[in-house]
Amino acid sequence: MSEVLFKGVMPALVTPFRDGAVDEKAFVALVERQIAGGVHGLVPVGTTGETAPLSHGRVPVIAGAGSNSTDEAIELVAHAKAIGADAALVVTPYYNRPSQEGLYAHYAAINDAVQLPILVYNVPGRTSVDISNETLGRLSKLPNIIGIKDATGDMTRATMQRLLCGEDWVMLSGDDPTALGYIAHGGHGCISVTSNVAPDLCATFYNAALANDAATALYWQDRLYRLHKALFSDASPAPTKFALAHLGLCLEDARLPITPASEASRAEVLAAMREAGVI
Asked: What's this model's pTM, rounded to 2 decimal places?
């Protein structure tokens, strides 16, 4: 069953840069740190050059492969399959704000074109379009559309999706602060930003949550909560890159229009890292 493979915590990996190019050495080191920390999978997003972990086979890899152009999305998903990804994460088309029928047609075209498991990525705060539970129910009947990354923060959607999409529908949160509640509503895990900074702590948290160990999960929820929030105290991924640079894991470099984290954000991140026990 698909949910056996895609569950727990999977970091939405940052892309480290050096002198404007992908820092492949730092990227590989970040991947190794995540696996050593006990994460359940990897979600590399960014440039095509970030393919180093795909051949390892030690954890499932979900490759970011979305576009607001259906033809381009198909090309990216086909590339993800060619380089050995286990699935593709395909964001809802941004900017052009398609109708629900347009959203269905977009994913149906990808389903028909490439034989690779697809996770729908719903993040209306960034894309200005929100795919409905009813549309997801239709998509769940297609063979290659297997689940969702839900970054709405609306935990109750998981209940309706279980009812509409069936027990094999993979439900991953894309919102660290509310992921515990999402799992309580039937979710299977989280594609996490915080795991970039604290993979071992996040793995412990999600192992407890999925094992229905409520007391342990709540302890880690409280300990990690401020870090969840601090990593979005400035335009993402600037705060996360600052945290990783503070740990000596990569440079802060980002590509415009993302600029380095503000001083206020840096102070918030450091305080949250201390509270979580990362430093």
From this structure: 0.92
